[in-house]
Design a protein that fits this description.
3 domains, mainly alpha, 9 helices, 154 residues, Arc Repressor Mutant, subunit A
């Protein structure tokens, strides 16, 4: 039998949530999940989230911009995958549009081309058609637009 978790009051949970948000950008859903873990009731969770928004600990637009920029620069994800992940985190369409503006077209194409070059060296396939298909499949699963991938491969 599991020991019962301590149920926090909203006043105890607020500083914990502030620390959680100060460590890295969080979306509303991540904060909400954390507060439920602390044993808060739904109305208390919303109350704490409102305080965090007022104190600027949680800002969905800031989160979306940081998330999109980070996933593109660090993990080299394509726009489709970033878009999908932001929607999964219930980010508003406005915030998603702002986040997508953070990825300059020039950098996006340059990154795509460098991924193609890197993958061409790795894929050991004598048949050029099959080799291109493998590279395209890899890039499309990384979230790059199929049309863009095929245009770049030609």
């Amino acid at each position: 039998m599991q020991p019962q978790k301590k149920r926090h009051t909203p006043d105890e949970a607020l500083p914990k949530a502030q620390k959680y948000c100060a460590y890295q950008e969080r979306c509303h859903q991540e904060v909400r999940n954390k507060l439920y873990e602390l044993g808060l009731y739904p109305n208390e969770v919303e109350e704490v989230i409102m305080k965090l928004i007022e104190q600027n600990f949680v800002n969905e637009e800031r989160f979306a911009i940081a998330y999109a920029g980070g996933k593109f620069r660090v993990k080299k994800w394509g726009r489709n995958k970033i878009l999908q992940e932001l929607k999964l985190r219930q980010i508003s369409d406005y915030c998603i549009r702002q986040a997508m503006k953070e990825i300059p077209d020039r950098d996006y194409i340059k990154t795509l081309q460098s991924l193609i070059a890197k993958k061409e060296k790795e894929v050991r396939e004598p048949n050029l058609f099959k080799k291109r298909q493998k590279i395209a499949k890899y890039l499309i699963t990384k979230g790059y637009e199929p049309e863009l991938v095929w245009d770049s491969l030609k």
